[in-house]
Write a structure and sequence with these properties.
Blueprint: E1 5-8, H1 15-23, H2 25-28, H3 41-49, E2 56-63, E3 66-77, E4 83-91, H4 100-115, E5 120-126, H5 130-138, E6 142-153, E7 156-166
Parallel strand pairs: 4-5
Antiparallel strand pairs: 1-2, 2-3, 3-4, 5-7, 6-7
Helix pairs in contact: 4-5
């Protein structure tokens, strides 16, 4: 039986994987490749706050001694006093299609509800990203609707689906 999927803080030794997942077209994959960026950006951000702050954060997805990718979240205002978290993830190509992303998203939702007062966690994915749609739905998210022309990738605007998970959706 394989080790359980876990989330953990980012280590300096994770930097090569983070660079591969964010600054390499093959590592990022077609839905996450957004163009080249400063190759020292992730390390500088990690040195600043360990990639964990009050407005956003990032945790590594692990299984035993293997790091598979990362989950991230950032704060979105939803009203005068309220906010929600918008989450995302990137899994290395060798780890895709094994349910690791689904479990990582379940764990992240539980983590955010356990450690913040937020009532809503949301995620967006391109309408063509069938694998991520399945992962979000298996993780318990509800598809709310389509956002036309929501994101720009590979020279054109893309439509996205918005998904949500409310604190009251927890089992």
């Amino acid at each position: 039986m394989p080790d359980p999927v876990t989330l953990r803080p980012t280590r300096e030794s994770d930097m090569p994987l983070l660079e591969r997942l964010t600054n390499d077209p093959d590592g990022a994959g077609s839905f996450q490749w957004l163009g080249w960026h400063d190759p020292g950006l992730m390390l500088r951000r990690w040195k600043e706050n360990g990639l964990l702050g009050p407005e956003h954060g990032q945790l590594m997805i692990g299984q035993g001694d293997t790091a598979h990718g990362f989950v991230s979240w950032h704060k979105i205002p939803t009203g005068h006093w309220a906010y929600c978290w918008n989450i995302g993830l990137i899994i290395q190509p060798e780890s895709r299609g094994q349910g690791i992303g689904t479990e990582a998203q379940r764990l992240l939702v539980r983590y955010l509800f356990a450690h913040t007062l937020v009532h809503r966690v949301e995620a967006d994915t391109e309408t063509e990203n069938i694998a991520e749609q399945r992962a979000l739905e298996k993780a318990g998210f509800t598809r709310e609707g389509i956002q036309r022309g929501w994101d720009f990738r590979d020279g054109q605007y893309r439509d996205s689906y918005r998904y949500s998970f409310l604190r009251s959706d927890l089992p």
